[in-house]
Amino acid sequence: MQIRIIVQFVLILLLSTAPLALGQEGKVPGTSYSTALELGVGEHSFYLERGDTHYFSVRLEKDDTLYLQLRSAPNQDFDMALISPDRDIIELSIRATGFTERITYTASSSGLYYIVVFPFGASSGAYSLLIEISKPRVTTVTSIVTVASYVTLTQRELRDVVIVMTRESYRTVTVTSQEVIGRGLEVLGWSILSLAIIAVAVLIRDGLMRARPVTVSGEKVKESETGG
Q: What is the set of domains in the chain, with CATH numbers?
């Protein structure tokens, strides 16, 4: 009778640990890039056999920051690598036995990135993989740009006498854009240049540089563009 109770207890224990051996929620890690298991944000648990390598994937947008944390038993040594969509090594975490592995990376482009978990030496057992993704913070940048334009005023008087005058006019345009917080001064300088280009486009759109009738000294003249 006691033997039967012990056998039942062992069976219950094996069944309770079976999901961990198969992976969290029955998910099976991939054995190559083509079979990599796609994971989302959260903590995932798996079991790594001696000599095996697990392949996972995660989708990132440009400027997303990925945080990875790999935990295993104190007497085991598991390492991990982050691989780019082009399958180039981005970063390795290969700390000593018992230490938690960590990788933090800000995506330079959107795509499917790979996480590879592998044992060192004869290590094997259960591990947890924590995945966190943070979106970039943005701020609204407002810039006031002043653009000069030159227009020619032409007036035809009696006896075909033509009077030509060139007038310089100015207009200010307010342009807003969104920039990622934390970028360097070099990027900021480029942003200001971009705003100036946008301002010129706004002027053209508004028809500032199109010909239009104006009045000079009480007489009606014709204004046309000669330069921008």
A: 27-134 (2.60.120.380), 138-227 (no CATH)
Query: CA-CA distance, 184 to 44, in Å (whole number)?
Result: 36
141-198 pLDDT, tens digit each: 777 777 666 666 666 665 666 666 676 667 776 766 666 665 544 444 445 555 555 5
pTM greater than 0.90 (yes/no)? no
How far, in Å, CA of 171 to CA of 152, rounded?
17
Tens of pLDDT, residue by residue over 104-135, are: 999 999 999 999 999 999 999 999 999 999 99
**Pairing of the two strands 219-227 and 78-83:** unpaired
Residue 83 to residues 43, 188, 224, Cα–Cα distance (Å): 20, 30, 59
- Listed in sequence order, the residues at least 6 apart from 190 whose beta carbon sits closer than 8 Å to its beta carbon are none
Task: Name the region of 51 (left: φ>0; alpha: ψ -120 to 50; beta: rest).
Answer: left
At 136, is the secondary structure helix, strand, or coil? coil
Single-letter residue type at 63: D
Token readout for 148 is 């000069």
Residue 49 carries which side chain, given as an amino acid letter? E
Output the six-digit token pair for 181: 């917080």
